[in-house]
Design goal:
Elements: H1 8-11, H2 14-26, H3 31-35, H4 47-60, H5 69-78, H6 87-96, H7 104-129, H8 137-150, H9 162-175, H10 185-191, E1 199-204, H11 210-223, E2 227-232, H12 237-249, H13 262-275, E3 279-283, H14 289-302, E4 307-311, H15 324-342, E5 346-351, H16 355-358, H17 375-378, E6 381-386, H18 388-395, E7 407-415, E8 421-428, E9 433-436
Parallel strand pairs: 1-5, 1-6, 2-3, 2-4, 4-5
Antiparallel strand pairs: 6-7, 7-8, 8-9
Helix pairs in contact: 2-4, 2-6, 2-7, 4-5, 8-14, 12-13, 14-15
Length: 445
Amino acid sequence: MTNPLNNSDRLWSKSSEAAVLGSMLIDNNCIPEVLAIITRTEMMYSEPTRNIFDAIVALHLKNLPRIDAVLLRDQLVKRKQLEESGGVEFIRDILDSVPSSANVLYYAKIVRERYNYRNMIKTVQEISEVPDEPGDVNEQIAKIQQLALDMEQEKDVKAYTFEANATESVISMANKRYTIITGFRDIDKIIHGFLTNEFILIAGRPGMGKSTIARDIVNYNARQGKRALMFSLEMSAESIMQASICAAASIDGNSWKNDPPQDEFDKAIKTADEISKYDITIYETVETAKKMYAIASAAQRQGPVDLICIDNIQLIETHRYMKTVERMTTISRQLKKITQALKIPVLCISHLNREVEKRQNHRPKLSDLRDSGSLEQDADMVLLLYREDQYRKQSDPDIDPSEFSGTAEVIVAKNRRGRTGIAKLVFLEEYTTFADLAPTYLGEA
């Protein structure tokens, strides 16, 4: 196999680097455009071009009326880098390398592409050395996945000005469509749905129905033709499928523990045929965020993925020696990276801490996120699930179920792009599903 490091043409382009520097000197107005593409000095390959690029940028930051070869030479002398940068002769060669700055962005992109290639080669070499390092195979696999996850292609920096983009922004707002919505009327009135790059948390105490409402959201979108990936660390795929069938068919799941009536069995078979058309893939044994990223990335290459659901965030594994808060911060940052890299909304289930139980008013707050690390900070949206019936049931186990209201609250405690508020639903316990609260539940005619 040919060593890629021997292919100097792919490692760097001497002529492109010279053309970029020459264009920056000929036309200082192109410097900001170049800096949007060549975002760091090390993107230049050779030491002389790095020194000169860094010197031009330093002069540019001084807001001088004009940067020329003389000022550049003086800057290099001041830094004691003139000779190691090729001297005055190299500066002259740079100026002679291009007649104008007309093609500077073309040359700048070549410089960036070569830098991306060098980064890729470096990562591949680091990965090839992992099997020889100490540690068990799981630790080595985790390191390889982290190296691959950290290898990001350097992209253009996009700059927007009000003058150029104000009208375009109005049109964009008018045309914006939230392709993923919850399917619950009152929730969607508040949040309007999920955007592609959002990290969303559904949080609550045990027994509130977090997994149920997440499953309801996934199934609703699947009915609309959306494609979803579910990473279930708590329930088996079979349990999720059975619960989905019972909810969709309005069948009491408890009755199936005994011999189900024939009419319900027939209804379940019909519903199962409909659900089999849902484009949902459930993964049971994916314990790390890195594996989730790898699977989601591979799935996206096969076709668009519209939603990722993870149940639950506290069960995701990290390095075994991490403390709880550090661990949750690491997981939170990794999940945030997934939604940003793949442009897919990530919906995660999270527990709340026990402080909720110690208060007389059990309605949860944003500060109740359990051992949250940076969860609260990283999440774009936090939905807190609350059912008063659960607390009444705990305080009085003998209470008549007919006294339960069935009302559930979804508290939009954080919404980075809009308003917060409380949406009310009804929990249909026998079918293990949530539904919109009908007007009659609100005491309306």
